[in-house]
Write a structure and sequence with these properties.
The structure holds 2 protein chains of 2 kinds. Chain A has 17 helices and 16 strands. Chain A is α+β, with helices and mostly antiparallel strands. Chain A has a 3-stranded antiparallel beta sheet. A 3-stranded antiparallel beta sheet of chain A has the order 14-15-16. In chain A, α4 runs antiparallel to α12 (407-422) and α9 runs antiparallel to α13 (425-437). In chain B, α2 (18-31) packs across α3 (39-46). A 5-stranded parallel beta sheet of chain B has the order 2-1-3-7-9, sandwiched between helices. In chain B, strands 4-8 form a two-stranded antiparallel ribbon. The longest helix of chain B is centred in the first third of the chain and has 14 residues, at 18-31. In chain B, 61% of the residues are buried. Classes of the chains: A alpha+beta, B alpha/beta.
């Protein structure tokens, strides 16, 4: 029996996550992922107006804000059979692309970077050498010896104050940190720049959505922001999108490559076996044919063989989660009954329950979802933008295609898709402008509420997201969603199959079990969002609410 | 060189002029309801203080949207807040430490700054099943709140969930969720909103640092400077309401002309908040400006009392 190590809370994520590992011979031998909070939004939705659902589900998460709102209105659009105007599709795409740009930048710098970058070590850097390094690898407009000197001085003043705040008590000086001081200082400077950039990037949501987090302008049938389709508003949106994309290309991606070049061994750690992508960004009303990011599933890392996706093959299993029930069910027929007690965390016994997160499976398989799944599916299908981006990156780093199946590959894929998706924004803006020039300013299609069912399959920054709704007497009868972090960070299923993060952690080297920083690298590479991942159903009755939502 | 001068130099180095900074301070001072005489003093608060006031930020049943809203703060940008204005002792989304090292940071801060730190709470507290529906580090939100909050100099509930229970407390409230004040029986200063506007948090903290006390509150614990008037009373579309000019469908010519959204379900008349004046994301917009009816997100129990959202009141 190896040594058990618990990391709880996992910080720098959304929500409350506990990771437990067993270490033997300096490596992870076993792993358990546990979601620690349960709210019950699906149950709260029961009996409410279907038009209101998107406001409720958007509150699943304020980090991946917007995504549940768009998924929900798509599901209800589908249920009532309304075809939204072209301009509404474009605005929904633009808001979603803005979310990808924003979310991936924040993830890289503010949630993930400190796993690779030792901020304290940056104090030892030579500012002049840092400036030279930055000139060499980065296209950042801010730079020069004085710039890095001032950043270093700012950090030094902060450290000297003795009030280390969010940087206190971390794993600084850990032997797994490999960057030289100058690279650490460059990354620290960009961490701060990115904090400012993201505040500006979020304004894109405010322009067509009223605010961020939680933009408010989506409605079943279209969007509400018809009065904002003015030249100045559109130009402002495009200007910010371009500035953000410049940051992506000149700072984020060069930093990603620079950091990756010191951690190539992580191209052999943290990989999964199966992958699922629903695809995203409809270019017209045909799905999945017109999706810019394609839909598909990959089994056994066989990238050359991308399979079509049938949502009816999705099931969820609660054997090891704090719910009643023991057979895997499709979301349409799923029933979720949380234990009505203070749950007991049990990873010791074979059938022990240990998480509020359920275990989704596709054809019974545990599948990784998210940037890596999307990029692999696109790569396998010979995507005209992503294939060259991936090949070019592998060549630059001098690593083989197999290295994609890893923690490093996952983090790199996130950056590469940010380039591809961000590059689509201008085209969509111009399409919108062209429509307006031709006198088409339709943003909303009226519809009659009616009974029926609908589904919305989406791919959002953290991965494949499905919303299912059933409407009866004009009210929500069932509402269910299966979200990315449920796929990636769930528990085992009845057959003992691990979730992607559990699988990915096996074999990870641990230099010091008291400071298991290596764990954070792989866990963070999935960009966990635990508030999204956890579902609830009716605690009072056993069968009335066949509903499950995030 | 005075600390204010040094501060202006640092701002200038980051491309922020003294003029635009003072403009921000003036706006903030006005938002806080203080006279113009306070503007220079407000500016002084942002100049590096001798000891940055310690802040402990607790995450309970939340979506992190409130933390995200603070990250959108501009002038002061969040890096100024974190590096130069406040000392963020514990904040799960931002802190580098994890696991027991993170828990240690919390214990240390509460002990070291006993009675002196500002506690900001994000998210509701589960009270059913011994609080078993929400835990951090193996302890329930309820236990953590009871341990930490009584040691704070002041506790600010930031966002509707922490103030009044918010979405997890909407009917039928499966986890017995409550706002932190109700859950543990203490009085909190409440800055609701879903998300709240960061300018209202900054304004409250500046008020505290400047005057050494919290701002004046309404009967639900909300600062009057931000929540003293209805959205409707401050709405730039108010004249359309008075003239009987209403949008009756999204995407209609009336909606395109910015007519009043009352008939599409706007809850502005019943909602106390400063959205029309403060706006969001550096003054970019707010929901009604984007054609979206107000959903009343700063009112207690709005998920139950304001729904269905798209029906006229």
């Amino acid at each position: 029996m190896g040594q058990r190590v618990v990391v709880d809370p996992i910080t720098r994520i959304e929500g409350h996550l506990r990771i437990e590992i067993e270490v033997e011979g300096g490596k992870v031998k076993n792993a358990w992922s546990s979601g620690q909070m349960f709210r019950g939004i699906e149950m709260i939705l029961q009996g409410r107006d279907p038009r209101d659902a998107h406001h409720f589900v958007q509150r699943s998460c304020g980090v991946c804000t917007y995504v549940h709102s768009v998924a929900s209105v798509r599901a209800v659009d589908d249920a009532v059979g309304v075809k939204i105007p072209n301009n509404a599709r474009l605005i929904r795409n633009l808001l979603h692309a803005a979310q990808f740009q924003h979310d991936h930048i924040v993830h890289f710098y503010h949630l993930h970077a400190l796993d690779w970058v030792d901020i304290v070590n940056a104090l030892k850097a030579d500012p002049k050498a840092t400036a030279a390094l930055a000139d060499n690898v980065s296209g950042s407009l801010a730079g020069g010896t004085n710039y890095y000197k001032s950043v270093q001085q700012r950090l030094q003043t902060f450290v000297d104050s003795g009030q280390l705040g969010p940087f206190a008590n971390a794993y600084w000086g850990h032997p797994a940190y490999k960057l030289p001081p100058e690279a650490n200082l460059m990354a620290a400077a960009h961490y701060i720049e990115a904090l400012r950039l993201q505040a500006k990037a979020a304004r894109m949501h405010a322009i067509f959505g009223g605010k961020n987090p939680h933009p408010q302008s989506l409605v079943v049938g279209g969007v509400t922001c018809v009065a904002d389709l003015t030249p100045d508003r559109i130009a402002e949106f495009l200007y910010i999108a371009k500035e953000t994309q410049e940051f992506v290309k000149n700072v984020y991606i060069p930093d990603l490559l620079a950091v990756a070049s010191f951690y190539k061994d992580w191209g052999g750690i943290g990989g999964c076996t199966n992958f699922l992508a629903y695809g995203e960004f409809p270019q017209n009303d045909k799905e999945p044919e017109s999706l810019y990011m394609p839909r598909g599933a990959i089994y056994g890392r066989d990238v050359a063989n991308v399979k079509p996706v049938d949502q009816m093959k999705v099931t969820e299993d609660v054997t090891r989660a704090w719910y009643e029930g023991n057979k895997p069910l499709h979301p349409w027929t799923g029933e979720t009954r949380p234990l009505k007690e203070n749950p007991k965390y049990d990873t010791d016994s074979k059938k022990g329950k240990y998480s509020w997160t359920k275990a989704p499976r596709y054809e019974g398989k545990s599948c990784e979802v998210g940037p890596l799944a999307r990029v692999l599916v696109a790569y396998g299908k010979g995507h005209e933008d992503l294939k060259p981006l991936v090949d070019g990156t592998l060549e630059k780093l001098g690593i083989p295609v197999e290295a994609l199946f890893s923690t490093l590959g996952r983090t790199a894929a996130r950056g590469l898709e940010t380039i591809a998706i961000g590059d689509q924004i201008e085209g969509w803006v111009m399409e919108l402008v062209e429509n307006l020039k031709n006198g088409d300013n339709a943003t909303y299609t009226p519809y009659e509420m009616k009974d029926g069912q609908g589904v919305g399959l989406n791919d959002v920054p953290r991965g494949a997201l499905g919303h299912w709704v059933k409407i009866k007497d004009g009210k929500i009868e069932n509402y269910q969603y299966v979200v990315p972090s449920t796929w990636n960070l769930g528990p085992r299923d009845a057959a003992g199959n691990m979730s992607p993060v559990e699988e990915a952690l096996i074999g990870t080297p641990i230099a010091d079990p008291k400071r298991p920083m290596e764990i954070l690298r792989t866990v963070h590479s999935f960009d966990p969002c635990i508030a999204c991942a956890i579902h609830v159903i009716d605690p009072e009755s056993n069968e009335v609410y066949k509903v499950r939502v995030c | 060189m005075g600390k204010e001068e040094a501060y202006f130099e640092r701002l200038a180095a980051r491309g922020i002029s003294r003029r635009s900074f003072m403009k921000y301070c003036t706006a903030l001072t006005a938002t806080m309801g203080l006279s113009a005489a306070y503007v220079p003093k407000v500016a002084e608060v942002f100049a590096q203080p001798a000891q940055r006031p310690p802040v402990v930020w607790l995450h309970f049943a939340e979506c992190t949207g409130c933390s995200e809203s603070l990250l959108r703060s501009q002038y002061p940008y969040v890096d100024d807040l974190v590096l130069e204005v406040l000392s963020l002792e514990y904040h799960e989304t931002l802190m580098a430490a994890a696991g027991h090292q993170a828990e240690e940071a919390l214990q240390t801060a509460v002990k070291k700054y006993d009675g002196k730190f500002i506690c900001v709470v994000e998210g509701a507290v589960a009270t059913a099943y011994d609080g078993g529906y929400g835990k951090v580090g193996g302890r329930t939100f309820l236990e953590i709140a009871k341990e930490v909050v009584p040691h704070a100099a002041a506790t600010i509930a930031y966002g509707t969930c922490a103030c009044f229970g918010g979405i997890p407390a909407a009917k039928p409230n499966p986890g017995g969720y409550k706002g932190v004040g109700d859950a543990i029986g203490v009085k909190t200063l409440n800055i609701p909103g879903c998300p709240p506007n960061p300018i209202n948090l900054v304004g409250t903290i500046v008020n505290y640092l400047l005057l050494g006390k919290l701002p004046e509150l309404d009967e639900t614990g909300r600062p009057l400077f931000a929540f003293g008037k209805t959205v409707h009373d401050q709405c730039p579309r108010r004249s359309h309401f008075e003239n009987g000019e209403f949008a009756e469908s999204f995407g209609s010519p009336e909606a395109a002309m910015g007519y009043c959204l009352y008939k599409l379900g706007c809850r502005g008349p019943e909602t106390y908040n400063n959205c029309p004046v403060a706006k969001f994301n550096d003054g970019t917009s707010w929901p009604v400006e984007a054609g979206a009816p107000c959903i009343g997100c700063s009112q207690p129990d709005f998920w139950d009392t304001m729904t269905p959202f798209y029906e006229e009141m």
